[in-house]
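Bench log. Compound arrived from synthesis this morning; before running ITC I wanted a structural hypothesis for how fe (ii) ion sits in the protein. Inputs:
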Amino acid sequence: MLRVLMFYVIFTLLNVGVYYFLYKKSRYVFQTKKMSQVFILIFLLVQSVPLTLYRFGIIQAEKSFGHFWIFLGYSCMSFLSYIIVFSLFYDLGTFSWNIFKRNKRNEKKDSEKDDAGMERREFIKKIGARSIFGTALLGASTGTVKATQVPPVKRVILKSKKIDNEKKEAKDFTFVQISDLHAGPTIRDSMLEKLSDEIKKLKPDLLFLTGDMIDAIPDTNMMRILGNLKKIDAPLGKFFVSGNHEYYWGAERWSRAFQTLGFEDLDNKNKVLEVNGKRILLTGIQDRAARHFGRSRSELAQISSRVSGEQFDYKIFLNHRPELYEEASRLGYDLQMSGHTHGGQFFPWNIVVNIIYRYPKGLYEHKGMNVYVNPGTGYWGPPNRLGVPNEITFFKVSC
Ligand SMILES: [Fe+2]
């Protein structure tokens, strides 16, 4: 209880700080103090109010007005993010410039620090703030349009290294990976309908969900939205592993929910498939968030040991986070499929994930094993995908 209270206090203080920062910056954008105050009030109504009301269940994403208001609230978050980041860059730039100028000015007479200089600085501040607000608005609106489009299909062609010398025998099998959809507050029926239609057109042999598929509890509305995935036919099976967000919203309930939608739970499990006369191993591991919810996570080596001694032509490892690749390659896996990073979604977070993760987005090779990190089929938080498109990943493996 105390921890929850602490969270809300810190969150509120942080919000007040952010709004104060926004107000100070807006003073250079608008002519009067009054106009800045009106701007903050409107921003509060479109950003913080809907998200708070949604969090406490007062408005629902089911209702069209509720959905619009919540969507607007999340969209404004990317606008806010751009304002803060651009302002910090701008302030750092002007601070450095002022130090440089001050050193030069000290060599001149004090009388030269006149009113004209003050006016010029005020003018530059206004131009700077207006440019930041304009760019942030453009970035937020363009990114929102990109995020709400049906994810394009990214095609990845791989080969099994074990049978590369037997090319005449090789046949293709195909599978689709979707990850980090985060269906819930803003990703609703229409996106799921279009997404399912796109996947159906690909006719994959297998379908994989690699976690963070939701951001809500598995109620009837969510089951209706995700029911679209049930309509996808994958003859060799449909599988899922948990992401951290499944734990935030009840991993066990979501495991049961996905099973009713026709997906097999691969958390800490192996599954052996026969494809074109070849033996394929699928191994999944639950997300490490499990540890924070009182569950001990199985080790990959421990799960893999259950099938030790068996021969496989292709081994696939599913892990929500792009981690454990060292161990997976040592255990002879051919492909690791992950997500979690979202590729950062938009600037500057797309740069930040490149610093945090060794494999932030796309296809890599790690000691003979392919690692594929899906940048997210949906988005989390702000509906913004500027420069980092979401995707449906379609794999074709010669096996
Ligand atoms: Fe995610």
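What the model suggests: The mean pLDDT is 91. The first strand starts at residue 153 and ends at 159.
ITC booked for Thursday regardless.
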